[in-house]
Amino acid sequence: MVSELVPDGNRERPLGAVGRALAANLSSDMFETLTDRFDQIFTRLRGHGRLGDAEVDEVLREIRVALLEGDVALEVVKDLTDRIRVRCSGAELSKSLTPAQQVIKVVNEELTTTLGGEAFSLKYASAPPTVVLLAGLQGSGKTTAAAKLALWFKQQGRHPLLVGADLQRPAAVEQLKVLGREVGVAVFSEPSDPVAVARRGISEAIRVGRDVVIVDTAGRVTIDQALMAEVAEVHDAIKAHYTFLVIDAMTGQDAVQTARAFHETLALDGVILTKVDGDARGGAALSVKTIVGKPIAFVSTGERVADFESFYPERMASRILGMGDVLSLIERAESVYDEDTAERAMASLRQGKFTFEDFLEQLQQVKKMGSLSGMLGMLPGLPKEMKNATIEDRDVARVEAIIRSMTQAERINPSLIDGSRRIRIAAGSGTSTTEVNKLLNQFKEMQKMMRSSMMSAGLARAAKGRKKRGGRVTPSSK
Question: Is 189 in the same domain as 267?
Fold first, then answer.
């Protein structure tokens, strides 16, 4: 009997296959301490004109301490630093005019290798459905990860079915149903046994035309023989195409040992790392590939179902070393930005008429991309103070409230806003006239900068056009 099949029509809003990344970000909290340490090491490194073996040894010693303090496994630290040492030979460095840059490049590349090298590539079964099994301990966020993964598949244009085979934990299936309704994905379960539920779930997916099945299995507080036997039985019965272990980043090295134990039983294909938005030190992420031999496929970056993304080792290495992650920022913008809204904003900019109406629309688009503090951390070259700046959601909400308290005429033409109108706007938005004045002044300055930049761009295009026609740009004789 089908316990509940949640229809896709219950989703909150339609989701397309446009974006490859969701509106989430891998929190800088997880690697913040490690990033600070690398920043200090590289700052001192740039002070050396040329680097010999003694200087390289000192750098490696500091890197080793930083990694160990970051809860990275000892064998992983030794392997990483040995590889860096081999590549940073004295002969090689002495030929470099910028040895510090060369060392940073080597560290970045070897850190990328330690994190997994290339991003995990998921291929779909030629005869649907593609079956994905999730395993893990209780409290790792496995059931939530199942729903998040289902949403990710929807973003790829797939039609997943969630199967609740965790019949051990009270309310586990009910939790999956609630999450299924939230992401608009059907949930199958029945009160029998895990193997039967998993098998029937796949049959149901074939019957209703679903091309991906995600099976949520039971967990235990600790690893035991009963857990392993049950998961292995389900795995063998459904012949899963992919088996992912869900591990909690907060448990540090325990997470890596859990992964090793599960891999010996299930032959894992990858790892889903959860709770990376907490205060974990990053040791699990840096250790799992070397210890288990399987990559991190996805990371869960927050409590919302949208806080889930593919794991890119190269980008993460760059972010750990304070180099930013522009690609992920661009992908996030592509996944949430409405093309019509962006085009309207560009048209307003070209005409030099960027108004509060346009600004409010852009603010709504930016809010979909996640926290502003997280986005700042993804930009390269920013001072540490700016990257660590905390921009509260309530600060953005106050700006939004002020704009929404204006009339449409005032948004289009802010010069209409006199003293009495400012008092009205402040009262309507729950702010002060000082805050309203500040926003108006900042917006006026922003408009000036935009007009200036658009004018400069127009002059540059005009000059380029004259050069192409063989003309010459000369100063006016007047």
Answer: yes
Domain final position from 114, 132, 153: 114
> Which of these, 108, 122, 28, lies nearest to 314 by C-alpha position?
108
Q: Residue 298: is its pLDDT beyond 90?
A: yes
CB atoms < 10 A from the CB of 190, how many?
Answer: 19
- CB-based contact 251:284 (threshold 8 Å): yes
* Same structural domain, 101 and 161: no
**What phi and psi values does residue 214 have, to the nearest 5 degrees?**
-115, 115
What angle (nearest 5°) sits at the alpha carbon of residue 12, between those of residues 11 and 17? 70
Confidence grade of residue 163 (pLDDT, cut at 50, 70, 90) = very high
State how far the alpha carbon of 215 is from the alpha carbons of 124, 127, 130, 244, 276, in Å: 16, 18, 11, 10, 23
Structural domain tally of the chain? 3
Residues 73 and 201 occupy one common structural domain: no
Which residue bears the tokens 């658009």? 454
Q: Are residues 259 and 373 in the same domain?
A: no
What pLDDT was estimated at residue 231?
A: 87
Q: What global pTM score does this model have? A: 0.63
Residue given tokens 């272990």 in the structure block: 245
